[in-house]
């Protein structure tokens, strides 16, 4: 009985207002813009691993494309939940971009962590990588792992709390008779 009530409440989630959506999209576009700028500025400034500035630049471009794709009207489902052919194409592009970004992220991990602690002195040509570029790429990649870890721990804690509250009859006060 509780499950039906929970599902009914999930289906009726409130939709955020347009200003909230616009502000959140603008905030989400800040990081890709910074990635594009840093990748472009320091394109030739990492001889220790020349793919790092390309990784940062391409990540920014494709993340921006993914964000802009989500703004298109074809990316949203209709109120009835049915998909039109244009929506299916948007979903396919969204999926392809996501898979590409995941694979690109793995490649970036290899490039970034393989030269961990490079020399920041331009005098060491073979081991040099610009400090701003490298630390930005390193910490953005590391923060993804930190965020995933926090989400996993938080999700496990939420599941444990739901299991404990479910056994104690937390939702037993609801009457689901219609």
Would you kindly provide a brief summary of this structure?
With 178 residues, this protein is mainly α. Helix content is 67%, strand content 0%.
The quaternary state of the protein chains shown equals: single chain
The number of distinct helices, counting runs of at least 4 residues, comes to 5
Order of helices and strands: HHHHH
Q: Count the beta strands.
A: 0
Question: What structural class should be given to the helix and strand makeup?
Answer: mainly alpha
Ends apart, CA distance between termini: 11 Å
Strand residue percentage: under 5%
Helix content: 55-70%
Average per-residue pLDDT, rounded, comes to 84
The poorly predicted ranges are none
Radius of gyration: 22 Å
What characterizes the major β-sheet?
none
Shape: globular
What order do the helices and strands come in, and which of them pair?
Blueprint: H1 2-11, H2 18-41, H3 51-69, H4 85-114, H5 131-167
Helix pairs in contact: 2-3, 3-4, 4-5
Key words describing this protein structure:
178 residues; mainly alpha; 5 helices; 0% strand; globular
Structure explained in plain terms:
This protein is mainly alpha-helical. It contains five helices and no strands. The chain has helices at residues 2-11, 18-41, 51-69, 85-114, 131-167. Helix 2 (18-41) runs antiparallel to helix 3 (51-69), helix 3 (51-69) packs antiparallel against helix 4 (85-114) and helix 4 crosses helix 5. The longest helix has 37 residues, at 131-167. The termini are close together. The model has no long low-confidence stretch (mean pLDDT 84).
């Amino acid at each position: 009985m509780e499950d039906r009530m929970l599902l009914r409440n999930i289906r009726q989630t409130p939709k955020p207002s347009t200003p909230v959506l616009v502000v959140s999209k603008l905030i989400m576009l800040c990081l890709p813009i910074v990635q594009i700028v840093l990748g472009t500025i320091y394109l030739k400034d990492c001889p220790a691993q020349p793919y790092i500035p390309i990784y940062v630049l391409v990540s920014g471009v494709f993340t921006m494309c993914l964000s802009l794709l989500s703004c298109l009207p074809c990316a949203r489902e209709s109120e009835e939940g049915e998909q039109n052919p244009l929506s299916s194409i948007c979903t396919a592009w969204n999926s392809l971009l996501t898979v590409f970004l995941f694979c690109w992220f793995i490649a970036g991990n290899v490039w970034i962590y393989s030269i961990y602690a490079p020399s920041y002195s331009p005098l060491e040509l073979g081991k040099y990588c610009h400090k701003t570029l490298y630390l930005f790429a390193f910490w953005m990649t590391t923060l993804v792992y930190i965020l995933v870890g926090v989400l996993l721990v938080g999700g496990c804690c939420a599941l444990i709390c739901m299991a404990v509250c479910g056994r104690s009859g937390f939702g037993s006060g609801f009457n689901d008779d219609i």
